[in-house]
Design goal:
There is one protein chain. Helices cover 78% and strands 0% of the residues. With 254 residues, it is an all-alpha fold. The chain folds into 2 domains: 55 residues; 196 residues, no CATH class. Helix 5 packs antiparallel against helix 11, helix 9 packs antiparallel against helix 11 and helix 10 packs antiparallel against helix 11. The radius of gyration is 21 Å and the shape is globular.
Length: 254
């Protein structure tokens, strides 16, 4: 794709901005900033990856993965304002997910141990884990507020926080996994995933593209489940104070 052809895609942003102006949504500035940031970030990452792929050395690959992990943890942990230590809990969840899934892919030799495979797949794993962790924290706090009377009743009857908050944890985990599960269910019927589409556009055999896409989808399902359970188990007891009471700031947070 030439730069001239790429420049024409700005028309799509203009269309969105026109609709925003027409409906008085006041989103023109956000749309413009998002488009500029997206283009700049992708261009920078493209040049960095070109250098990393050319060097093909593990220290640079590891550094790239660590950078993606750090940004994902920072972004997802902002959802857990009422959860003490949300940062390190999200860091553990996403880190464990990356180690387990990427470790299996490389250990079983499903994919080659090269930057061209490790970095893009890690990006998909970490990005998906980031979304799941953010949804989990958001839902965990909302569910605790919605069920605060039930939780207080359990605590009054002598239940420990781990018992009183178990229903909240289950509901939060289920809610955080729904987008990934629903997206996987409709793949091929409603949507053609980006990786598969990209390979087909690049001229790859559609069957080969499908195989790689199935690999990614199965990996992302496992990644979502590991992230949700890890972050959930580390976080839900933090909704209670040292006296085994539902923390007041959890109820106040909106």
């Amino acid at each position: 794709m030439s730069l001239v052809t790429l420049a024409w895609t700005v028309a799509f942003i203009v269309i969105a901005m026109v609709i925003s102006l027409w409906q008085k949504l006041n989103l023109e500035r956000d749309l413009a900033i998002s488009a500029i940031r997206c283009a700049v970030q992708l261009l920078v990452v493209g040049y960095i990856l070109k250098v990393v792929f050319g060097l093909s050395r593990w220290p640079f690959t590891t550094l790239m993965v660590m950078l993606m992990w750090s940004v994902a943890v920072w972004n997802a942990s902002r959802r857990g304002r009422a959860v003490p230590g949300a940062w390190w809990k999200v860091a553990c969840g996403i880190g464990l997910t990356e180690v387990v899934t990427q470790g299996l892919l490389l250990g079983l030799r499903i994919v080659p141990a090269t930057p061209q495979y490790v970095i893009p797949i890690s990006g998909m794993i970490i990005g998906n884990a980031m979304v799941v962790a953010g949804l989990l924290l958001d839902r965990l706090q909302a569910q605790a507020r919605a069920q605060r009377d039930e939780i207080r009743t359990w605590l009054a009857l002598g239940a420990r926080p781990t018992q009183a908050g178990r229903g909240v944890l289950r509901a939060a985990v289920r809610a955080s996994l729904i987008p990934t599960i629903d997206s996987t269910k409709t793949t091929g019927l409603v949507q053609l995933p980006g990786m598969m589409t990209g390979q087909i556009i690049a001229g790859a055999d559609p069957i080969q593209a499908v195989r790689y896409q199935v690999l990614i989808l199965f990996t992302l399902l496992a990644a979502a489940a590991i992230t949700a359970m890890t972050v959930g188990l580390l976080s839900y007891t933090s909704l209670f104070n040292a006296y085994e009471q539902l923390r007041f700031d959890v109820e106040l947070h909106r």
